[in-house]
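Record type: monomer structure entry
Structure origin: computed from sequence
Chain ID: A
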Amino acid sequence: MGSSDGRLVNSNHRQLHHIGSYGGCGLPASSLVWNSDCLKEIIMTNERTLEQAYVGTAAENYERYFVPSIAAPLAADLIEVSTPRAGERALDVACGTGVVTRLAAQRVGAEGSVVGLDVNPGMLAVARSVTPKLAIDWREGSAEAIPFPDATFDVVLCQMGLQFVPNKLGALREMRRVLARAGRLVLNLPGPTPPLFDVLADALGRHIDARASSFVHIVFSLSDEQELRELMQGAGFHHVEVHRTTTKLGLPPIRDFLWQYVFSTPLADVVAKANEASRCALEREIADRWQEFAPDGSLTCEVGISTVSGR
C-alpha cells in the first residue's frame, strides 16, 4: 500500500528511497525462478503455473492485482472526500499506475486538468497505457520537489504515498506551495499494521529477509493522528482534519493474494533472491496462519485508514 522505486532498505532504516506507487520495482517477474514442486502444485491461476501468471514487471502486476483488490476501493473513498469538481486543476502525487488520477480526471472533466506525478517511470508507463484516451499529464518527479510553479492546482491528492517519503514535511510544504490560495490537500494513509500483515511481516522475516519484513511495516508506519496533525500544521496547512475509518477489504484466495502482493511490490526483488526452500516455507506458513482471516474460505482484511485534509 504505498510506494518506492523497488529498493528495500535495511531494517534499521525507516524509509524507502523514493515515493511512488510501491509496486514499481520494475523487476520482470519472469526473471524469477520458481522450480518448487510445492509452488507448481499449489499455485495455479486460470490453470497457469506461477511462472506463467506473473510475467510482467511489478508495475504491471500492481495494476493487474493490487489495484482491483486494494487501491481501487480506497481511491474511490479518497475521491468522495476530496470532491474534485468540473473545471478544477488536480494533482495526484505518488500516482503510481493512476487509479486516483483516472477518477479525478472523470470528475474535473474536459474543462479541468489533471496531472499524475510519480518518481517511478515504470509505473508511469503502465499509467499511460491504461489511459490513452484520457487527457492526463503524466509527469516523472518527486514529492519533495514538485515540478510546477506556485499556486498551480486547486486540489492535491496523495493515496498511500507519504509514508515512503524521506522528508515528509518537505513534501507537504511542496504540496501546499503548488496549491492555489483556496486549494485543498486530501491524502490517505493506512495503519497501524493489520494482523494479517503482521503475520506476513513475521513470516517474511523468518523465511526470507529482515528487509522484506520491514517493508510491510513501513507501509503502515504513518497513522498516528498527532503526528499527522503536526506534519500538516508544520507545513503551513490550516483547517486540518484527520478522519479515522476502518475498511474491510475482500481479497483473493490466500495463496493467490500472497504471491500477487509479492509480485506487485518491491518484495519481488528480495523474494527472488531467496532459495527455493525458503519460498516454500513462506507459503506453507502463510497458508496455515492466514486461515484465521478466511473462516468461511474468503480472505478479508480490516485496514485502518487515516484521511487527512487541509487548506
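Annotation 1: The longest helix spans residues 58-82.
Annotation 2: The chain has one domain: 29-310.
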